[in-house]
Amino acid sequence: MKKLSILFLLTLALAMPARGQSYISHQDHFLTFTDAVALPGDVILEPGTYLFRFAGPSQPGVVQVMSEDRKTVHAALSTVPIMRAKGTGYEVTFQPSSTRSPREIKAWFCEGSSIGHEFVAGASSSHVRNR
């Protein structure tokens, strides 16, 4: 029985993507904002909880930003990997301070990873504006 458990864990570990390859992950990441924030392409997210989800292996680096209930896709944005110096919790960074309000998200990091996802402004991606 012990050999079967170890084999199962090894199989599970091999099936999971390696650290640093989160662009192929299909995990759901729910992020909650207490203030309105912006995404590249003039997409505004009102205060609330949103699903950040990787589109899949056929679109590496593309992140879909959806409503919590998954009924509305607010944007599908290209990202590139970015390293953070410290920290392992969920983190959102913003573009340098400007007069723009709401603040625009620059990158976000998943819990337990030093590699995050920086949005690429102007890259080919689709945007769905809030109505």
Can you give me a brief rundown of this structure?
Helices cover 11% and strands 40% of the residues. By secondary structure, it is mostly beta strands.
Q: How would you sum up this structure, described in words?
A:
With 131 residues, this protein is mostly beta strands. The protein has one domain (22-127). Helices cover 11% and strands 40% of the residues. It contains 1 helix and 10 strands; from the N terminus they run αββββββββββ. The chain has one helix at 2-15; strands at residues 28-33, 37-39, 43-45, 48-54, 62-67, 73-83, 91-94, 105-109, 115-119, 126-127. The strands form 2 sheets. Strands 1, 4, 5, 6, 7, 8, 9 and 10 form an 8-stranded antiparallel beta sheet that branches. A hairpin with a 3-residue loop joins β2 (37-39) and β3. Residues 1-24 and 127-131 have low confidence and may be disordered.
Topology:
Blueprint: H1 2-15, E1 28-33, E2 37-39, E3 43-45, E4 48-54, E5 62-67, E6 73-83, E7 91-94, E8 105-109, E9 115-119, E10 126-127
Antiparallel strand pairs: 1-4, 2-3, 4-5, 5-6, 6-9, 6-10, 7-8, 8-9
Distance between the termini: 56 Å
The count of helical stretches stands at: 1
Radius of gyration: 17 Å
Instruction: Label the structural class.
Output: mainly beta
Strand content: 35-45%
What helical percentage do the residues reach? 10-25%
Structurally, how many domains make up the residues?
A: 1
Described by the principal axes of the CA atoms, the overall outline is globular
Summarize the biggest pleated sheet: 8 strands, antiparallel
**Which regions have little confidence, pLDDT < 50, spanning 5+ residues?**
1-24, 127-131
Query: How many β-strand runs?
Result: 10
Order of helices and strands: HEEEEEEEEEE
Average pLDDT rating: 77
